Amino acid sequence: MARLSRRAFTLAALSTLVAGREAGAAPLLPRAAAQMRGMWLATVTNRDWPSRTGLTAAQQRAELIAQLDTAVRRRLNTVIFQVRPMADALWPSPYEPWSEYLTGTQGRHPGWDPLGTAVTEAHARGLELHAWFNPLRVAIHTDPKKLVASHPARKYPGWVVAHGGRLYYNPGVPDVRAFVQKAMLDAVARYPVDAVHFDDYFYPYPIAGQTFDDDDAYDAYGGAFPNRADWRRDNIDRLVRDTAAGIKAVRPGTRFGISPFGVWRNAETDPRGSDTRALQTYDDLYADTRKWVRENWIDYVCPQLYWHIGNAAADYAKLVPWWAQTVKGTRTQLYVGEALYRAGAAGQPAALQNVAELSRHLTLARAHPEVRGHVFFAATEVAKDAKGAMARVVADHYQQSAMPPR
Predict the structure, then answer these.
(1) Residue ranges of the Glycosyl hydrolase-like domain (predicted)?
(2) What pLDDT was estimated at residue 406?
């Protein structure tokens, strides 16, 4: 069925309620206030979907629909679907190859259109579908010859940097930024996705004793900057700002959200930072996440606050108010990324062994009106919920359905 508009949905619900009362039926429960209730659906290395490579188109489609049905059953309203996990595509892109996570062979047509189907089927269930792109990761190996022959990374080897056992597009090359935006916006032009979503990977996470070799690009394009760090941050700023403009040009009304690592800067580094002692996106990933919020370049920010309440290095109870203050007075909405995958998992701290910990997160966040909802990593755990943490969240906080905020 076609997705109902917000106004149409409200009118339909009201009509049903009135009809029920006239017939003497029990009144329907009112809907909760608009809030994000999302889950990430990861396709990289077949983490969440498809369960393995080489399934038939019918099997893949059935598994995908089961994931959407799980979201509905948990009273979620948004699925963040990873459609470009590795400089590839889960739609018929003219720019990049079909993802190997579908068939086992990069570039091989899977026999159907996963992104097109996901949009249609999500909307039919009243779910939003956010298309999740990893903009710069090319491969989880360093051999370009393992890529399909037509891959842009083979055609333009100067675009690629090997680092930490992986291949990355170099954001310091203007042609790279232009290309990855064109490749991603192709999906936005083809499908009525509700949002474009980036995760936390910009420049690679630091590895001790290794450096990201962008000397040639810095020599060519970094002359106007006092140091390499400022130049790198500007490269990522341009990628974010230009992507936002591109989305608005291609499909006005489609939103743009980013889910960064949860710490911008530590207060001991910058008094504007959080009371934490953790990796810093500004300094280590060259991602000025606070700036993107304050400049209203993005429609929502979903920091990955994957720590428990009371964590010594990064306390959830300190980071939520920091992010709430950061978005205050901006047009950027705040959702909180929750580490469902860590709940009850072996080796996790005692706090995360408590089935109620994530429910406590939502209770704490409710004291901050700037927090407009939560997103759970990831779909496998939402479905299996081995320790019952997701069921506890649903029972405590999601007894009624809710529309996502706009």
Answers:
(1) 35-345
(2) 85
